[in-house]
From TrEMBL:
Pfam families: DUF4218 (PF13960)
Species whose genome carries this gene: Trifolium medium
InterPro entries, A to Z: DUF4218
Protein name: DUF4218 domain-containing protein
Domain DUF4218: 195-258
Length: 258
């Protein structure tokens, strides 16, 4: 990982966007470097010595990660990451023949059922469970309003709803999945739950920083490559940010958006 001085030595001679305008690329972009400009924050004399220059918002990261996991496991049409394009990537990027698109006699292609996704009936059972779920007063919003039992999906979930589901309900809702799939998802749930504690211990954060890459690697063995984008990578940096910046309650967006 580059230090602040290393980054400063790299970008100090690059122009700011106010100097070159929007859309103008610095010579060597894409070959020698990937910098598009020098941020105006580098004009601050202390910026290169600032250990936490850009704070990652745990609220939106957790929500986006949850949406990807939940919609993929529940096999929500139009929102699942396990679509036809993702399955086509398997033939080029992975050796997982059981998940590759299969040709049909009529010339069309079929998408085999994956172990990590529910059938329509299983998804409806999860929604029915959420519909009947009772939470302590003031602990969470009325999640039953989000459950659409007839279609087997959730709708209208707010960031805090995703927060509660990811950290408390996900291991229970997905318990019917095979153990080799359920366990990494539970570890992911525990990671966010530990990260969002009011009190954080340094030794716990060091352990979490060591464990989260392993959890992501386990998920890579489960879901197709199309499931993973920058949002699935960002949690790797969250424990280190907590070490530098303290508990996430002082840095996330809930106080400003709720």
């Amino acid at each position: 990982m580059m230090s602040g001085n290393d980054v400063w030595e790299t970008v100090r001679d690059y122009p700011k966007v106010t100097d070159i305008g929007w859309g103008t690329k610095i010579p060597g972009y894409g070959k020698l470097h990937n910098w598009t400009k020098r941020s105006i924050f580098w004009d601050l004399p202390y910026w290169k010595d600032n250990l936490l220059r850009h704070n990652l918002d745990v609220m939106h990261i957790e929500k986006n990660f949850f949406d990807n996991v939940f919609n993929t496991v529940m096999n929500v049409a139009g929102k699942t990451k396990d679509n036809e394009k993702a399955r086509n990537d398997l033939a080029n990027l992975c050796v997982r023949g059981d998940l590759e698109m299969q040709p049909l006699p009529n010339g069309k292609w079929a998408k085999p059922k994956a172990k990590y996704s529910f059938t329509s009936e299983e998804a409806k059972l999860v929604c029915q469970w959420i519909k009947e779920l009772k939470m302590p007063d003031g602990y969470a919003s009325n999640l039953s309003r989000c459950a659409d039992v007839t279609k087997g999906k959730m709708k209208g979930m707010k960031s805090h709803d995703c927060h509660i589901f990811m950290e408390c309900l996900l291991p229970i809702a997905f318990r019917s999945l095979p153990t080799e799939i359920w366990k990494p998802l539970t570890e992911l749930s525990c990671f966010f739950k530990d990260l969002c504690c009011n009190t954080l211990k340094l030794e716990d954060l060091v352990r979490m920083e060591q464990n989260i890459p392993i959890i992501i690697c386990k998920l890579e063995r489960i879901f197709p490559p199309g499931f993973f984008d920058s949002m699935e990578h960002i949690p790797i940096h969250l424990p280190n940010e907590a070490i530098l910046g303290g508990p996430v309650q002082y840095r996330w967006m809930y106080p400003f958006e709720r």
